[in-house]
């Protein structure tokens, strides 16, 4: 029987990658899709984003315990949680303040939403899809805070999958180099772009749509016996 009538919560769903998944999940029969943005500007832009025409857009700072609990508490039910909220690496990763901010958003933000959503997900026998990264597997000289947080996402996913089975399945996707507003500066740098593409066997950057099939599978009943995996969607990057 096909999945239908489910409620999806996608943190960071106003962004390039989360927005692509929101659009895909909204195509499901009877789906209710809630996406969040971290700032008023993101929320305002999302209200006119055609990808999110079928979604409800909410403001959420994943650094706030109170805001996370309030948002999840408003939901009558929850079937699928996608933790896509996050920030990229930056020179601030090499400062204590910047490191703390990155961990607070990328790792602890995911923790907060997972913990807040557990009861509702258990009631619906639902599932979680976290956003890992290539840096969940490899370090990076340009973003130690980002890498540490994404490595934590991988072990968080595996740990919660074990702790919350069989009521809640917990998996993660690990996108490779995907085109988005956050990655455009890297693509625009000829040296960095050439180096990255040269290491991707598929020979190109990924598109947000490349994540859809994997995420749909993990969110669906077809993956009922799948939990605790980190699924790379990377054009073969990890093989090089």
Protein architecture, described:
The protein has 240 residues and is α/β, with parallel strands linked by helices. It has one domain: Rossmann fold (3-Layer(aba) Sandwich). The protein contains 8 helices and 7 strands; from the N terminus they run βαβαβαβαβαβαααβ. Strands 3-2-1-4-5-6-7 form a 7-stranded parallel sheet, sandwiched between helices. β1, α1 and β2 form a beta-alpha-beta unit. α3 (65-74) runs parallel beside α4 (96-124). The longest helix has 29 residues, at 96-124. The chain is globular, with a radius of gyration of 17 Å.
Structure at a glance:
By secondary structure, the chain is an alpha/beta fold. The chain is 41% helix and 15% strand. It has helices at 16-26, 40-46, 65-74, 96-124, 144-164, 184-187, 190-198, 212-219, and strands at 7-11, 32-37, 55-59, 80-83, 127-131, 169-175, 230-233.
Please bin the fraction of helical residues. Answer: 40-55%
Computed structural class:
alpha/beta
- How far the N terminus sits from the C terminus, by CA atoms, comes to 39 Å
What is the general shape? globular
The first-level CATH class name: Alpha Beta
* Secondary-structure element pattern, one letter each: EHEHEHEHEHEHHHE
Quickly count the helices: 8
Average pLDDT, rounded to a whole number, is: 96
Which fold name is given in CATH as the topology?
Rossmann fold
Q: Structurally, how many domains make up the residues?
A: 1
Query: What kind of sheet is the major sheet?
Result: 7 strands, parallel
β content, as a range? 15-25%
Which runs of at least 5 residues are low in confidence (pLDDT < 50)?
A: none
CATH architecture, by name, is: 3-Layer(aba) Sandwich
| CATH-assigned homologous superfamily | NAD(P)-binding Rossmann-like Domain
Enumerate the strands of the largest sheet in spatial order, edge to edge or round the barrel: 3-2-1-4-5-6-7
Number of strands: 7
| Radius of gyration over all CA atoms, rounded | 17 Å
